[in-house]
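FIELD: query
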Amino acid sequence: MSDPGTLAAAFAVGVLGGVHCLGMCGGIVGAISLGHSGAPGPVWPRLLAYNLGRMGSYVVAGALAGLLGLALLGALPQGQRILEFLAAVFLVLLGLYLGGWWPLLARLERLGGWFWKRIEPLGRHFIPVRHSGQALMVGAVWGWLPCGLVYSVLVWALASGGPVEGALLMAAFALGTLPNLLLMGLFAARLAGFVRNPWVRRGAGALLIAYGAWRLVGIAH
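FIELD: result
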């Protein structure tokens, strides 16, 4: 399942879901970019390091999801079909969430709060961020922030076929989220208004719903 078409689709989901990323991670990115008084040098190395740490956590999570999916494939009759169906359903739910039509995934984000409360204090040790090493560690912690977007793609990684495939899928997705968050760091004030525009979120949500529905039709046939 790590064929170029699938990886390209995961990248596109990351790009479209970027409006949600800006809402979830925009605060810490803004803190790195706007609150860097006293930190030497330009801000972009710290922004890049933060995102590399975040993306690395996504890749680790993808490998774990792929490993779990591999075990489920052996235990469930027609496991591949079931997992692919769930992945497509979650893409539709993600689109409904981004568009503001049905916030079911917000409840799933709250379920991840238990784990987040235990690791979030680790990130505070590296704030304020004054160099790239601290930014890398903050990103690695923030990569586990409860996020319906990430959870949706992790369900997709379950159906990827194995840990390597799951890691590659999440890497492609993570690369898709990168442009939005880098731009957020460099143009925080301008992008904040753009992301709050409901038509931007609805457009991204509609595209994700269409893609998830297309996958559901393909699975049904």
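FIELD: remark
Residues 30 and 189 are 9 Å apart (CA to CA).
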